[in-house]
User: What shape does this take?
Amino acid sequence: MKKDGQVVLSKRLQMLAEMVTPGNSVADVGCDHAFLSIYLVQKGISPHVLAMDVREGPLAAAREHVKDCGLDTYIGVRLSDGMEEMESGEAETLICAGMGGRLMERILRAQPEKAGGMKELILQPQSELREFRAFLRRTGFRILAENAVYEDGKYYFAMKAACAGGGAGPAAGGGALPVNPADLPWQDIFDEYGELLLKTGHPVVRQYLLYKRETAEGILERLEAGQSPRSMERIAEIRQELAEIDRALGWFRGLQDGMFGRP
Assistant: This one.
């Protein structure tokens, strides 16, 4: 959204903008109408942005918005499937948001050298968070920061990551980060809900967990009321999900009680 020539971001996009290291050039993959790209330049966060999208429709709108703001010199608008049309070294920060985790993984795997050569990746998967965080860990990307917001009835999670292998990138079958043995029993929960978000007691994540528990309990109650052989497997899955939610909520109880280690 624009107001008096200045872009005003949604909470979801504002969260991403605040994760970008000031002074870095940016590649915004899946830029849509380029509001985030424009904001980064207008606020002096980034000196140059590549706004890229695989769809010509949103790109046409992006070009118009960039032109209206007089930022053609600072923002390049490019039709690209992921990072395909970007040269190595053209950007220091990659932003990839507004798409499912599996698609985001495909984009990073398609151009491993470019992804691994970035100083930082600002990522906001809309789904498959557990699988996506596990993918990052297994391909040598360390999550440096995480944040979460609630907006218009939805929860959004963002992470800043960097390649721990000095630019090795997400090559298949290599570069996995070592896991602290003490974290092994918690790894699935960290992958699902965000290790840094749990350890810092992020209030939006606590709200999200309570919402998930209420939803799961409602589903379980309906399934058990009309219990059939076909529903037994689903009942077991819901009970497992509830157990994980309660373990995750244990971090918040521990922090509340002044216990800063594992719950």
